[in-house]
């Protein structure tokens, strides 16, 4: 029973950390006055960038840097649309979620030949 509890605690920390970090990013965004309901799109695009960067270079740290670059790029697109051009922040966020979902699905199919997961 104790092993099960330790396993569950470790699994919760491992699986919950990306969501907690994303929630902190959303909190920072909300505190600055920008509504960003597209955080899962940023996570999805960054995950695809990490997989692609690691796969193409063979280095997981390049994958982490690629994920950071993609996340910043998606956030920059959202900020230009909503702040500079004065677009609706919710519409911009949802458009980026749809863009990230489609781009990652098509990218997985193009690079790995299968959609939904990578080897």
TrEMBL record:
Q: Which GO terms describe its molecular function?
A: transmembrane transporter activity
UniProt xrefs under InterPro entries: ABC_transp_permease (IPR001851)
Superkingdom field:
Bacteria
Q: Which Pfam families match?
A: BPD_transp_2 (PF02653)
GO cellular component term of the entry, any = plasma membrane
Report the transmembrane regions from the record: 6-27, 34-55, 61-81, 93-112
Topology versus the membrane: Multi-pass membrane protein
State where the protein is found: Cell membrane
Keyword field: Cell membrane, Membrane, Transmembrane, Transmembrane helix
**Stated name of the protein:** Branched-chain amino acid ABC transporter, permease protein
């Amino acid at each position: 029973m104790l092993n099960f509890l330790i396993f569950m605690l470790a699994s919760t920390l491992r699986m919950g950390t990306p969501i907690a970090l994303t929630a902190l990013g959303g909190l920072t965004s909300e505190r600055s006055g920008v509504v960003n309901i597209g955080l899962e799109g940023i996570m999805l695009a960054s995950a695809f960038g990490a997989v692609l960067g690691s796969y193409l270079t063979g280095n997981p740290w390049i994958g982490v840097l690629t994920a950071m670059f993609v996340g910043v790029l998606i956030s920059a697109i959202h900020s230009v649309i909503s702040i500079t051009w004065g677009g609706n922040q919710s519409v911009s966020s949802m458009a980026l979620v749809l863009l990230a979902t489609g781009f990652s699905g098509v990218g997985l199919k193009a690079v790995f030949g299968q959609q939904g997961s990578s080897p």
